[in-house]
Amino acid sequence: MSSLSAHLPALQVVLPLLSAPFAVLLRHGGFAFGIVTAGAWAAFACAIGLWLQTGEAGIISYHIGSWPPPWGIEYRVDRLASFVLLLVSGTAAIVLPYSRASIEHEIPRELHYLYYAMFGLCLAGLLGITITGDAFNVFVFLEISSLSTYVLIALGRDRRALAASYRYLIMGTIGATFFVIGIGFLYLMTGTLNIVDLGERLRTVEDSRPVLAALAFITVGVSLKLALFPLHQWLPNAYTYAPSAVTAFLAATATKVSVYVLIRFWFSVFGETLIFEKLPLPQILLLLSLAAMFAASFIAIFQDNLKRLFAYSSVGQIGYITLGMSFDSVNGLGAAILHLFNHGITKAAIFLLIGGVVLGLAKNSAVPNSRGVPAGAVPPAPTFDRLAGLAKRMPLTCFGIVLAGLSLIGVPGTAGFVSKWYLILAAMEAGQFWIVAAILLSSLLAIAYVWRFVEVAYFKPAPEGTTKQEAPLGLLIPAWLLVIGTIWFGLDTSFTVGTATEAALQLVKAGR
User: Fold this and answer.
1) Is the pTM of this model over 0.70?
2) Residue 114, in any domain of the structure
3) CB proximity list for 2: less than 8 A, separation 6 or greater
């Protein structure tokens, strides 16, 4: 057993990665579901083991092929990496059982095996980005996750999913190109690709133009991936037209892993001195974060499609994460890491519940087949004119959306409140009381767009001829597990706040 635990970093990536080709070879939706789900749950178990190990023994360095770094490829797990691994693998373990029921009406049956194969690849890519200690491997895993994501988005029955996927492909390719150019500059200046070794060698040449160019390319490239305002243009359509399970998984993990990459390179490679003392990057990030918090949230208020509304909400919530990064403090970075996790589970819960809404609308919109949905039909969009009186038809689904919406607002007792509280503490610590006011004012915009759903679902009469049709348990149980998580982590903060603070302390110490 001890020998197995020593290889958890490798198993973390290998198990979901192997599940993808097996899903393609089997070419059967049921078998593909079983093997990819088993891979995801095994990855989640590995993530739990790594989190426990980093808590007891500190940073884990795993040498691929027994070649020591910087000569060989290293998998490196610190407190931040273990936290993100838990988020990614845990979300996948919950979303995959949900997928079994949801894709029946959103993806043609003959493509189910391909969906699971691409899901396994995407999961392996995201886990690889998080765990690798090699800068070029970050790019490799980034491409694995991105290419599979393009396919996952395009699998939706709505033809607009294909256009959304193509737009994401174009912008994602630009971001990846910028990122790999930056890695090339770093290799030119240091002769190494190991992230720890890069950080040590850059201390002597950090003011050189190639290093500054590398910082610019990497920052812009990763900002495209994480949908930092105004580089977010790919996100609203991708989230709106992708299958519900895909939207939930991407909202919880893809942008969060990209934020992780930016944090890792800023603090572990370039260092706090260059980022916060010699360049105006924190000020630029602060302005873009505030723009996201206000502009994206304001745009969300006027959306007619519920998925699109919460897609723009994600852009705004990413602003809170990057706002924490703009503070040169442990509290600020800890708040960013904390909101990365809390917003991930909150938004996954919302999009899973919206998937149940889409299924309910489909059952009421046409004569269903034996599976309860129109054969080959495009699922109806969850527009507000179709949501009137939804709370009477789907009470558990609507109540779950409201609870998760309270977390987006930052109501006490929810995970979102904890994140915003630590952001406020960081702003007060920096003496930036006007930022405290900005956080509170932007939360009012979240109240506005969440209230739009409450008003339509609870206070408008349902159309005639509609029947009470709660989402199936296969959709409700995974979604409600995440809803309960948003409340649990709002009341018991020992795991989230404790891990985020430890991660921030490690990064700040390494960056100085």
Assistant:
1) yes
2) yes
3) none
